[in-house]
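Summary for the funding panel

The consortium committed to producing paired sequence-structure records for every protein in the target list. Below we show the first two records in order, beginning with the earlier of the two.
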Amino acid sequence: MPLHPQAQAVADFYAAMRTTPFEELAPNDARALYNAWQIPSEEMVFEIRDVDAGGIPCRLYRPSSDTDLGLLVFFHGGGWVIGDLDSHDGVCRSLANKSGHAVLSVDYRLAPEHKFPAAYDDCANALRWAHDNASSLGVDKTRIAVGGDSAGGNLAAAVALAEVVPLRFQLLIYPAVDMSMKSPSIEENATAPILTKSVMAWFVSHYMRNSADHKNIQASPIVAEDSLLK
């Protein structure tokens, strides 16, 4: 099936920017390349400020002066290796404005310098901090959700399963939920544009400590018991 023209344009852009296969890069070089792809957002938001969530750097986006906004705690994508507050700044601006609610973007620690479960721990702790400090953020602690894209979706699903705090919903944007890489979709999309099987394996190998981690629900939410997935 051919890609939609807009999707094809994105794939062509990444192909033109990538002079070396991503999976052959050192993590710092991959981060530099990823950062070079970013285009700063000019979308205006009522308030944007950096927040220290108990030692975890975060960024708060508020679309209005209301003091009882709902809150989306957002975890960025990037295969647990790349990405930061700036890489997903435009996404968070749009989420705040379009939803009419606040967004707290979490700058969790990256692999391979900090392997699993460092990212999970940071996300869980930031979520707990947001709940405990809701009034200082101008949000309603009974209306908190988690979300993220790709690796961020993985982290959102994992902390939701842990029931760190009561949540209204999960916003999971193409989440990676199985670190074993044995699902049929891995083979079906092995040579897909942008994210190939070999690139995904590069990310997983940097994030996981060993193969035993693949069966941990904090790494692979899909292995959770059905009773936890309801």
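The next record, for a separate protein in the list, is shown here:
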Amino acid sequence: MAIKGSLKEASLPDVIQLLFLGRRTGCLALADRHNFGTIYFDEGQIVYATIVNRRDRLGDLLSRSGRITAEQLREAVDRQEGEREHKLGEILMRLGYLSREELERYIRVQIEEAVYYLFSWTSGTFNFDAGVRPEREDFLVRINPEYLLLEGARRVDEWSLIEKKIPSFDLIFSVDGGHIGQSAPGLSEEQRQLVPLLDGTRDVTRLIQESGLVEFEAGKALFGLITAGFAHRVGTSAASAPRVTDSRVDEHRNLGIAFYKAAMLDEALREFHRVADLRPSDATAPFFLGLIALRQARWEDAVTGFRQAGEKGGQRASVLHNLGVALERLGRLDEAETAYGDAAGRAGDDARVMLGWGVVAL
């Protein structure tokens, strides 16, 4: 039975409860126009969750909490570039920066924070794909959804109150050091972490990044300080002009890939067009634009995309093979045979390439 629909018609907690009671295994994908998240289930238990471009990924959590240094994270990320088959957590363990128990604890936090954030979505779509598992199953934890549903409901209720005092993350707050000094023993650990940062220069986004707290913890701590009269609003951070940065291009690219894998082709098309506009030299954008055109039977557009991808990123076997497919669909068999032949020269004995080459050569 397919489980899909709109979050306006069925809330995420209701969907999770259904999957839990049915002891379902698979991937629940959620998307709105600008976000994409996934929750993986194994016999009704949540074993993994992630949101594209969110800063609650494992490396960010470890770095922000102070468990590893920025240099250690950078070393692990650099090693991962050459060891794509290994996850970041595995590399950190191998380097001796993290124990298995610590890794599993932080993975649990990562999963929980991703699910709690998804609970705040009131619009978008969901689709459950049965039997799909995470790419790697090492170090997976098992979380009872009932716990997350109860805690998530509490957080949603509390966040509705927090938003009345902190309606935007670009607000800047300052703390009265003299006033708070007498009450310092009564502050929570999270509030004590925030107080030194409330100097009238950092907005809420920076407070979260520099305190090592997750959004809810930081928001709740700041809400308490404001309510007690210890912190007050002093301004708003200036909106900086949009700049073309690697991270901005990566965000659109990551979203595009996620939408493409979920067969949300119009959304993927939009994101890859943004990548192409922001970074004309990027080879990934025309390649995926070509793939999308293939799936939408726009053969001429597919040819254009793959030719541009080859010009910008080199004549890789995958580019040439898909170019051959598009040319074959257009009936340009001589050109298709050349593309397949070039792909075969780079891909070796890839069965798909050899089959396409053989068909057009008949």
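Regarding this second record: The first strand starts at residue 3 and ends at 6. The chain has a mean pLDDT of 86.
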